[in-house]
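quick one
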Amino acid sequence: MIQAVIFDLDGVLVTTDSCHYKAWKRMADEEGIPFDEKDNLRLRGVSRMESLNIILEKADRQYTESEKHDMAERKNAYYVQMIGDLDQEALLPGALSTIYALKEDGVKIAVGSSSKNAPAILKQLQMEDLFDAVADGNQIKNSKPAPDVFLLAAELLGVKPEHCLVVEDADAGVEAALAAGMRVLAMGSASGNQKAHLRSGTLNDIDLTSYIKNG
Ligand code: BG6
Ligand code: MG
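structure w/ 6-O-phosphono-beta-D-glucopyranose:
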């Protein structure tokens, strides 16, 4: 019996996944490090520093810890600048209608995001009061594919992991949800993930409330 749905944020509720890519791309171009959309798939769902380390696999020299710190800061500054004018137009298809339908059915909802910018994005979109709990990159040590952020969200909700369903667009997030012992809907760029219990292109292509009532 599903009692709660935990949504990833970037690429599930909001189009900010493309802002992460553009900000990393700008930084990588400046450094002359090859980086493209295919490389970016490995960055989905993982933390800022882990993302940088993946990008640096293609660099032709070693970077010091201090240089890495500066590069991560620079990417984040580009990202923060980009999300500065986000509004509800940035919400992905089906995001709001799914949230409202679940709430109406008494299903608890939470955000489970690796991003340290998640609270700022929710505030900017005036969505911070919509969720029963928010777990994000500021509160956890190990980011996806570790289960930490989803286990924290479940704990904040007071719902057992086996009664939670996660919605994810990243393979690392699907792994994290499975490691947490939760059910998972893989969507967007993870919609081909065969390990997930459910798959759909967008949240508009699936009736989560019926699935929860019948499943
Ligand atoms: C995840 C994104 O939600 O957050 C990743 O999918 C990103 O691409 C990660 O690296 C960390 O984000 P931030 O905002 O803390 O740099
Ligand atoms: Mg995501």
